[in-house]
């Protein structure tokens, strides 16, 4: 064991000219917002980082100031809140405690801290924030739409599926100081001001929430878009998730009329104001070029119906009809969006094009993804151009059967002969290949005819893992692309076929790795609000969120997202508010579990270990693990996590009650399903059988070795191949690492044959798949079905890249104390990456040459770390060039360390 002061002495010292106590940096609100407008919290939470350079390692106190006016100097008073000096090391999720804030309010904040020497830092740079419209009463406008879509007129599906065009002309007669557009829709919309798109990269706004309970709103600053004189505010509007079909539910397809709501608030430099709202004074038309729009079925565009200038001033809208209006429903909350919207984030060029018939060409973009194409192709007047999409070719042929009932086809009807330019607006596709047919076949297709515009919720991706293995790096990229594709306002299961739902089981598996790979906290916490809103009075959590009536029962391992996700987020962030917000939901889910149980044994329905390979039972898709065993194990797990939550929230009586219940469930689990040698009393012994018991701590301490040996025996019987589906796979690596068998994880990870991760890469995968054998280059798509090539659930293995290969885990919630234990193996000679924490990233970079390890570690400020090095030969360790006889380092101070040692068994 090395003392803290000795370790601190090993870190690099700053130059003498450097400031002793530098100001805090990277100020954030809530789950990661920087200088937001339209912010959603009336009681913001503040976070910051200590600068990673400088002499201060720790914070001992802080002071936050919030003001209605910007701070002009260090002594400027804070008129909204001054926390005073607060003795605390906490730098994240500090609650605002000042004067009440209201809708539209703009405020400025700054922070300083005191270090371990009780020296005060400089004040941080000032950051501003502006609240959105926080309550329905802030809205003066009404929902509007085209009169032909009024339900009283019994509109046809065709009418409801035809996008609407809406516009309002108004005058600006004096200089503008500020203009804010507050806007949303029942459906999806594209807003324009004076002929220009308000947010060119935002797509499919406002997104998908439980519309009967809450609709999110967006705020845009359009101050610079207004001109003196006549101005026009406009929008196009389609059904999106609100009125288009969900899954293969044709009976709900285009049954509801899309509606638009906007409020433009202008403040003039002379102090006067003007508000433009949606009402009957707006004009509307359905005679525009987009003739049909559907998430699943694509878009139809008619060039002859284009309306040049329809969204700008000076357009003749005499033939347009007055919009109809509907009042706001006070039961449906209008609230600012809690995370960044879906955006176009990058453009992929076509890497090849192949002519497959007269006027037919297939473009390959080299990457499975989600978004829409942008095409420039030669057209013949009156000859429709059809655009289809595919994830892979089936034995060389264009293949769409795995999209099931989703047509995923766009049509463009040209009115003129010549080059046309087209980009769909109100749909999205999951694809790698695109087939274009109907173009002028006298011209030879080229790759510059098409680009792919990648879309996903605009979370920041870290690109923070690499290794000496090309295939492992490819797997890492595949997982990231799967995340890109399925983080589409909600966590989808897949983005291409007639499903695209927020399945809770997939979310359970992928939550933690996604937090390592992206700035995803806001994304997940926003989705949890939807989970809370969809929970029924009995505590049941639907299989997918938002919920549309299709599958009416709940599943263990899926609905347990109500307890697992809040707890995992708390471990990763240290933010108690995520537990406070979801505690009632967690208790409700336990009530539902109890209602499905008898004598502590759960009989809840379950999808089982979904798509386990090589099943022997008739319920092939659900695997061989006993369903009741699965449900009881997850019942115990949910009780355990809710007990821990109660303890963290200071609810000690409830924590004690739940701890006792957890003990009772464990005893019942053991007695019901296992004999005294931990062999199943009935059914099949599976890898997941033991993974559940080990991961969820359901076996007595004295019998864990027996359970582990059974698991190892099952692995050996499968030639160290996994036999796990959606539930078991997410537990496999952590259980084996805890057992000291990271060698087996490496063996599983580097397998080349089915079922394995590298099997998919050997067969051309650029994302992660739904089945372990969804596709092969030789045989094409698996004839069993369920063949999405863009499912993220099996990407859960990437969690081990960070927690195993790099070896970083939170020893305390929010990584206030960090555990570092990298796992070395002869299959890798190097690995590097960063693990994000609320106090800054932990950096790990290791290389092994001739059994010599060089490990570079950076521990962020305001944290401590415990480092364990497996397989180190005693007496060979140096830290920053200084010899030490230790191999386990405790309470390491912030800083950079280079550790060198000789390794055995590598």
Automatic annotation (TrEMBL):
GO terms for biological process: carbohydrate metabolic process. Residues 464-804 form the Alpha-L-rhamnosidase six-hairpin glycosidase domain. It is an enzyme of class 3 (hydrolase). One of its GO terms (molecular function) is alpha-L-rhamnosidase activity. Residues 807-877 form the Alpha-L-rhamnosidase C-terminal domain. Signal peptide: none annotated. InterPro entries: 6-hairpin_glycosidase_sf (IPR008928), 6hp_glycosidase-like_sf (IPR012341), Alpha_rhamnosid (IPR016007), Bac_rhamnosid6H (IPR035396), Bac_rhamnosid_C (IPR035398), Bac_rhamnosid_N (IPR013737), Ig-like_fold (IPR013783), Rhamnosid_concanavalin (IPR008902). Residues 356-451 form the Alpha-L-rhamnosidase concanavalin-like domain. It catalyses: Hydrolysis of terminal non-reducing alpha-L-rhamnose residues in alpha-L-rhamnosides. Keywords: Hydrolase. Residues 176-346 form the Bacterial alpha-L-rhamnosidase N-terminal domain. Its EC number is 3.2.1.40. This is alpha-L-rhamnosidase.
């Amino acid at each position: 064991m090395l003392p803290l002061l000795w370790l601190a002495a090993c870190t690099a010292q700053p130059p003498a000219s450097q400031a002793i106590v530098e100001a805090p940096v990277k100020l954030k609100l809530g789950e990661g917002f920087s200088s937001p407008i339209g912010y959603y919290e009336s009681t913001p939470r503040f976070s910051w980082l200590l600068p990673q350079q400088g002499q201060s390692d720790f914070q001992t106190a802080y002071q936050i100031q919030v003001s209605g006016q910007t701070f002009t100097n260090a002594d400027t008073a804070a008129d909204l809140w001054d926390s005073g000096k607060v003795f605390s090391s906490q730098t994240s999720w500090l609650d605002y405690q000042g004067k009440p804030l209201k809708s539209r309010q703009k405020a400025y904040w700054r922070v300083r801290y005191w270090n371990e020497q009780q020296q005060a830092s400089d004040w941080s740079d000032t950051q501003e924030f502006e609240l959105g419209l926080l309550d329905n009463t802030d809205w003066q406008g009404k929902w509007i739409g085209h009169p032909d879509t009024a339900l009283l007129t019994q509109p046809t599906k065709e009418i409801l599926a035809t996008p609407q065009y809406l516009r309002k002309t108004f005058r600006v007669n004096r200089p503008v100081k500020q203009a804010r557009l507050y806007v949303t829709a029942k459906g999806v919309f594209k807003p324009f001001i004076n002929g220009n798109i308000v947010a060119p990269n935002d797509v499919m706004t406002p997104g998908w929430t439980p519309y009967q309970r809450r609709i999110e709103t967006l705020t845009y600053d359009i101050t610079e878009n207004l001109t003196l004189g006549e101005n026009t505010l406009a929008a196009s509007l389609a059904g999106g998730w609100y009125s288009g079909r969900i899954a293969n539910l044709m009976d709900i397809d285009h049954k509801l009329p899309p509606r638009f709501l906007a409020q433009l608030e202008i403040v003039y430099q002379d102090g006067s104001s003007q508000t433009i709202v949606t009402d009957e004074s707006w004009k509307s038309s359905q005679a525009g070029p987009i003739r049909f729009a559907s998430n699943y079925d694509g878009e139809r565009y008619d060039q002859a119906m284009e309306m040049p200038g329809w969204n700008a001033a000076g357009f003749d809208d005499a033939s347009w009809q007055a919009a109809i209006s509907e009042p706001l429903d006070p039961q449906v909350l209008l609230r600012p969006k809690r995370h960044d919207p879906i955006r176009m984030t990058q453009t992929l060029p076509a890497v090849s094009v192949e002519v497959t018939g007269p006027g037919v060409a297939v473009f390959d973009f080299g990457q499975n993804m989600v978004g829409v194409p942008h095409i420039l192709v030669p057209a013949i007047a009156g000859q429709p151009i059809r655009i289809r999409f595919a994830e892979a070719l089936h034995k060389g042929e264009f293949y769409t059967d795995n999209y099931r009932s989703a047509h995923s086809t766009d049509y463009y009807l040209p009115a003129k002969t010549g080059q046309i330019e087209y980009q769909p607006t109100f749909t999205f596709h999951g694809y790698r290949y695109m087939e274009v047919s109907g173009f002028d076949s006298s011209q030879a297709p080229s790759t510059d005819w098409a680009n792919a515009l990648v879309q996903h919720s605009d979370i920041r991706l870290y690109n923070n893992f690499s290794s000496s293995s090309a295939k492992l790096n490819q797997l890492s990229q595949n997982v990231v692309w799967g995340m890109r594709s399925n983080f589409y306002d909600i966590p989808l299961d897949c983005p291409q076929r007639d499903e695209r739902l927020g399945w809770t089981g997939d979310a359970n598996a992928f939550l933690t790795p996604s937090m390592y790979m992206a700035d995803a906290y806001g994304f997940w916490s926003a989705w949890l609000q939807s989970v809370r809103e969809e929970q029924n009075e009995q505590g049941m959590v639907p299989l997918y969120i938002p919920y549309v009536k299709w599958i009416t029962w709940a599943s263990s391992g899926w609905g347990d997202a109500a307890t697992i996700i809040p707890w995992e987020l708390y471990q990763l962030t240290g933010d108690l508010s995520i537990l406070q917000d979801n505690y009632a939901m967690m208790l409700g889910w336990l009530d539902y579990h109890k209602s499905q149980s008898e004598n502590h044994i759960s009989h809840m329905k379950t999808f089982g270990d979904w798509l386990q390979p090589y099943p022997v039972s008739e319920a092939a898709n659900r695997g061989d693990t006993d369903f009741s065993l699965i449900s009881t194990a997850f019942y115990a797990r949910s009780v355990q996590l809710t007990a821990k939550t109660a303890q963290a929230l200071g609810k000690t009586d409830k924590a004690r009650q739940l701890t006792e219940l957890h003990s009772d469930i464990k005893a019942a689990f053991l007695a019901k399903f296992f004999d005294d040698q931990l062999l199943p009393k009935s059914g099949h012994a599976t890898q997941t059988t033991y993974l559940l018991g080990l991961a969820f701590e359901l076996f007595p301490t004295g019998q864990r070795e027996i359970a582990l040996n059974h698991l190892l025996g099952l692995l050996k019987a499968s030639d160290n191949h996994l036999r796990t589906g959606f539930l078991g796979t997410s537990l496999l690596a952590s259980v084996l690492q805890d057992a000291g068998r990271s060698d087996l994880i490496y063996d599983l990870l580097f397998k080349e044959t089915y079922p394995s991760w590298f099997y998919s890469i050997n067969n051309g995968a650029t994302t992660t798949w739904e089945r372990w054998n969804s596709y092969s280059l030789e045989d094409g798509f698996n004839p069993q079905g369920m063949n999405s090539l863009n499912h993220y659930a099996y990407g859960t293995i990437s969690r081990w890249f960070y927690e195993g290969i790099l070896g970083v885990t939170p020893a305390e919630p929010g990584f206030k104390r960090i555990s570092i234990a990298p796992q070395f193996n002869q299959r890798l000679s190097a690995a590097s990456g960063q693990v994000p924490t609320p106090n800054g990233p932990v950096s790990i970079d290791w290389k092994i040459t001739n059994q010599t390890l060089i490990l570079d570690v950076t521990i962020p400020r305001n944290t401590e770390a415990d480092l364990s090095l497996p397989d180190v030969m005693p007496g060979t360790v140096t830290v920053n060039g200084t010899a030490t006889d230790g191999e386990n380092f405790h309470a390491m101070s912030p800083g950079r360390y280079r550790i060198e040692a000789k390794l055995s068994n590598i």
